Amino acid sequence: MGYFVVESISTALKFGEEQLSSLEFDHAPRLHAELMLQAALGIDRASLYLNPGRMLTEPSEIAYSAFLARRHKGEPLQHILGWAAFYGNKFKVGDGAFIPRFDSEAMVERAIAILESRTSSLEVLDLCCGSGAIGLSIAAELHDVRLTLLDSEPTPLKYAALNAEALNLSSRTSIVRASALGPFPESWHNRFDLIVANPPYIPISEISTLPVDVREGDPLSALTDGGDGLSFYRAWSLILPGVMKTNGIFLTEIGDGAVNQVTEILSPWFIVTDVINDCSGNQRSVECRSLTIAD
């Protein structure tokens, strides 16, 4: 990385954009330079552009240079900033917690649409919750939702608890450390109106092809099951119907090109009702309901 000399905001932005443009894994160098400079200066985007001639102080220059250096090493931007943007909110994230991404927002929108038509107290379970972004985004929009966030690791749950507090959702949120593959508590029998999940669905053979900031930034256990990426769907097809209400819905993310495989796995135990595309038009989520005796 080149050397940066203390100058104005506009010069710093230009320098940062040039530095990030050289990185194969950074596809928004101008935006990311803006965000890092905002963080270094402690100002918002409007202030950044209203004061282009403002000179950086030495501490802000040191901070900005350090941010750029960390990004050059492949560290995720969200870890550098300490938060990730998702569904209109900032979610605290850090090393050891999966970073929420825009692709998951389509599933949140669908979940909200499903639950809006239901008037009773609603129980939602977010499996493999990470920082809690999916479940908390749903609960933030619907005041009748009681949310259970489940993850097997303590670090993601630490961030999930912080995010629940930041969104004033702690009183409606339960944090559970347990395997998403079960067994689940007896008290969960026929409990949930909606279950959402973003499991580790990337085949282990494809991990090496991921961008460095994903491959090394996200926990490996949040990216892959260590096999073909389908093991969670196989387990859930057997255990989730038992914790869902009769009219309950299961929404789960899927990998690229995996819709037929996932549907085949779930079909003996669920009725697949829809496939939801993400913001890029890729088939990203499967919606289904559990079979009943009448079915």
Summarize this structure as a short list of keywords or feature phrases.
alpha/beta; Helicase, Ruva Protein, domain 3; seven-stranded mixed beta sheet; two-stranded antiparallel sheet; 9 strands
Work out the helix count: 12
Mean of pLDDT: 93
Work out the number of β strands.
9
Helix and strand pattern: HHHHHEEHEHEHEEHHHEHEE
Computed over alpha carbons, the radius of gyration is 21 Å
CATH superfamily of the largest domain: Vaccinia Virus protein VP39
Name the shape in a single word.
elongated
Query: At the third CATH level, what is the topology name of the largest domain?
Result: Rossmann fold
Q: What is the domain total for the residues?
A: 2
Structure characterization notes:
By secondary structure, this protein is of the alpha/beta class. 38% of the residues lie in helices and 20% in strands. The chain folds into two domains: 9-73, Helicase, Ruva Protein, domain 3; 96-290, Rossmann fold, CATH 3.40.50.150. It has helices at 9-21, 29-41, 45-50, 58-72, 77-81, 105-116, 133-141, 154-166, 212-215, 220-223, 231-239, 259-266; strands at 83-86, 89-92, 122-127, 145-151, 173-177, 192-197, 244-253, 270-277, 283-290. The strands form two sheets. Strands 5-4-3-6-7-9-8 form a seven-stranded mixed β-sheet, sandwiched between helices. Strand 1 (83-86) and strand 2 (89-92) form a beta hairpin. The longest helix has 15 residues, at 58-72. The chain starts with 8 loop residues before the first helix and ends in a 5-residue tail after the last strand. The mean pLDDT is 93.
